[in-house]
Amino acid sequence: MMRSTRMRDYQSALVGLGYDPGALDGTWGPKTAAATRALLAAAGAPYTSTPADPVKVPATAAAPVARFDSPAYSDMERTFGPAGGPDCTAGKVALPMPLRLAWEPAKTVTSFRCHRLLAPAFTSIFVEAVAHYGEARFRQMRLDLFGGCFADRPMRSGTRKSTHAWGAAVDVDPERNQLSWGRDRASLAAPEYEVWWKLVEAHGAVSLGRAEDRDWMHFQFCRAK
Ligand SMILES: [Zn+2]
What is the pLDDT of residues 41-87, one digit of tens each? Predict the structure, then answer.
């Protein structure tokens, strides 16, 4: 069971989004779980009752997994609309604990914007991961160092739009997972992150590190090439 002021912040965020988590008591109970399920169901994203690649996540094992199947890059516009368009920031991810901004760790956020269709899946990834690891461990593993989601920019190499331009990608701990680093240097390639990546993949997202051994900070709702 999670019980914390951070969980209370998450419950407040649920209220702010129009859901009822019951008493704001900092405890992950049936009402908070139900509100989370409602939040995950709300955006009309493709939705399944069991993860494709199940992992044991006791705190929310009864909750359905909000999965969004990643399109190929050539189908990004058909799936998500124009890069940088209004839908790309219309989703709001309510976080179960504050994330530190990787470029300014003294600042934290309790939510971030993403594509309208991806809010349930991104939310579920963070909720399930924090439930699995616990807040302290999640922070110790630097999974709370948020490197950003929506950014309307080209890929760092080339002129094609980055998947960030659709609000379809998230970066984690960029300092220790730099773009050109492989699994020999990237911290997120370590075995202790296996459950994190299993969760990311169970929700339909793709790790460029796991798929292509580059850009380990980055996961996206777009298939690797
Ligand atoms: Zn990225």
Answer: 654 433 333 333 333 343 444 455 689 999 999 999 999 999 999 99
Quick one: pLDDT at residue 50? 37
Dist. CA 3 → ligand 1 center (Å): 32
Q: Is residue 23 part of a domain?
A: no
- Domain count for the chain, please give it: 1
CA of residue 19 to ligand 1 center, whole Å = 30
Cβ neighbors of 184 (< 8 A, separation 6 or more) are: none
In the reported structure, the alpha carbon of residue 98 is separated from the centroid of ligand 1 by a whole-number distance in angstroms of 20
What residue numbers bound the domain in which 68 lies? Answer: 48-220
Three-class DSSP labels, 79-99: HHCCCCCHHHHCEEEEEEEEE
The count of C-alpha atoms lying within 13 angstroms of the C-alpha of 44, restricted to the half-sphere facing its C-beta, is 2
For residue 93, the CA-to-ligand 1 centroid distance in Å is: 17
Domain presence at residue 21: no
What's the gap in Å between 193 CA and the centre of ligand 1? 18
35, burial (CB in 10 Å: exposed 0-12, middle 13-18, buried 19+): buried
